[in-house]
């Protein structure tokens, strides 16, 4: 393996392991900022050693061990009180490779949920919670987060630093709260898990369209949360959404790693067990007798696709109606764009294009690559190939995911003519 290949592999490992690493370290030091610093120290050591020694069989355990040693060294250097040092020493036993599987499924997995509740504390603003989540739990860089927020990288960096400082200064506990405090933070926690899942389902950047391990972790956390808060319909709604969306993983990319669009997927290969689990979670949500919230409505939309044996059998009129309901409870330009797609499928591309054109000057969608992509698709159906090619090229220039960019350029080429 070449040095560049090793570094790419280490980067991939870091994206997978860093959330669990930071969560476990936060449990130790009770300071999320310090935990991230310690995790970064472990990464630096790995970058120095692994190109020569090779990547260990269990890189997660190796990183955790290195980070915990750094934590112990820090405690010694800072000359903390003897009792504090003794307390920390009792909970900082080093991880061995034999312990890895047990720890990934047990203690560290629980720490991730505690970390989410910690970063969703009301002392932080919504923007701070989202930025911190994308940084700590999804492994995005400040530059990638800045692009998502459509703001300066320095602004995001300051926001994240202030958020970590606030959590430390306010001594926000590292725990899953109970009672009213849990209820107060629940919507923020659901949003964070939803963000995690979406980043895994359609990666913002990089060479892969999917990050399935991130989706799996989000789904696992959602299932745990459903046990903690069984009377909350939106918890079941989010779990239903993630279960059904996860059922498509095997068909969302080709053997060569290229994205496969929903209408082109082989539905016979969708995971029927996950679909049944998703439909059951959606039914639990409905049985609680309250109006469907944003996650439950999205799950109902996904259920329409899951229950259609073939793409041609999809009940697009119902999907359009569900998007209309979603636009009332959670209005956003992206919901309107999805509603336009559903209307185009139910009533024809000309109707959809009219709605999409109304969104062309929406500030929030100015850098959103799916807007020109959707418009290009509608123009193809209307036979306006030159315009469609321009839209696909514009979308390709806007996306930061290389696989998606390749797909959009391929669609542009299929429209014929000369590239712009």
From TrEMBL:
The RNA polymerase sigma factor 70 region 4 type domain, residue ranges: 115-167
GO terms for MF: DNA binding; sigma factor activity
Q: Which InterPro entries match?
A: DUF6596, RNA_pol_sigma-70_dom, RNA_pol_sigma70_r2, RNA_pol_sigma70_r4_t2, RNA_pol_sigma_r2, RNA_pol_sigma_r3/r4-like, WH-like_DNA-bd_sf
Name this protein carries in UniProt: RNA polymerase subunit sigma-24
The DUF6596 domain sits at 185-285
- Example of a GO biological process term: DNA-templated transcription initiation
UniProt-listed SUPFAM superfamilies: Sigma2 domain of RNA polymerase sigma factors (SSF88946), Sigma3 and sigma4 domains of RNA polymerase sigma factors (SSF88659)
What lineage, starting at the top, does this entry show? Bacteria, Bacillati, Bacillota, Bacilli, Bacillales
Q: RNA polymerase sigma-70 region domain: from which residue to which, for each copy?
A: 19-79
